[in-house]
Specification:
It contains 1 helix and 15 strands, in the order E-E-E-E-E-E-E-E-E-E-E-E-H-E-E-E. By secondary structure, it is mainly beta. The strands form 3 sheets. Strands 1, 2, 3, 6, 7 and 10 form a 6-stranded antiparallel sheet that branches. Strands 5, 11, 12, 13, 14 and 15 form a 6-stranded antiparallel sheet that branches. This is Netrin receptor UNC5B-b.
Amino acid sequence: MYLIINKWDKTTLPSEGSQTVLSPVVSCGPSGMLLNRPVVLTLPHCAQLDTPTPDWTLTLKTQTHQGAWEEVLTVGEETLSSPCYLQLEEECCHVLMEQLGTYGLVGQSCPPQPACKRLQLALFAPRAPCLSLDYSLRIYCIHDTLHALKVPLVCLSLCLQMSALIRLPLFLIVHVTLRFLLRIEYQ
C-alpha cells in the first residue's frame, strides 16, 4: 500500500467554471483496491469555514484510471448509498472510504456571500549577502496547508542551494465569488 501527495501535472485537479482547488491531490493505493474495512483519508484544505452560514459548496473528486476527474460526493448531500462519507473540520476534511484511489477537494462559492480561501505568501531571498542594489526575490502564493509550504522550501533549498525563507509566511484571506477575487485581507 502507498500514500502520495501528488505534484505532477497529470494529477493536477482541474477547477471547472467557478470552482477552485482547496486541497492537495492525494493518491492512496493500489488504486481501485477494495478494502475489508473502511479507512479514513484526511485531506488538509484552505477553505475558510468560520462563518455561521455556509459559504462553500465543497465537492470531493476522484481521478479515473483514464486520467479524467469525476465527482464523488458533495459535502452535505451524503446518503446511505454514497460511496464514502465526509466529515468537514476547520482545516481538514476526513473521508471515510472503502476504495483506494486519487482524491482532491474543490469548492465553489454559494451566493450571495463570497466564500473565503486561506492563502500564504512566502518570500525567499538569496542566502549570501547582496553587494549590489540588484536583489532577487521569489514570492510564492500558496494554499494555507502544512504541505503547501514544503514544496517551495524543498525545491529552493535542494535545487538552488541559495535561497532562504525571509520570514514566516504572511497569511491572506481571499474572498471568492462567481467572478473570483474580490478582496484580500492580511492577517
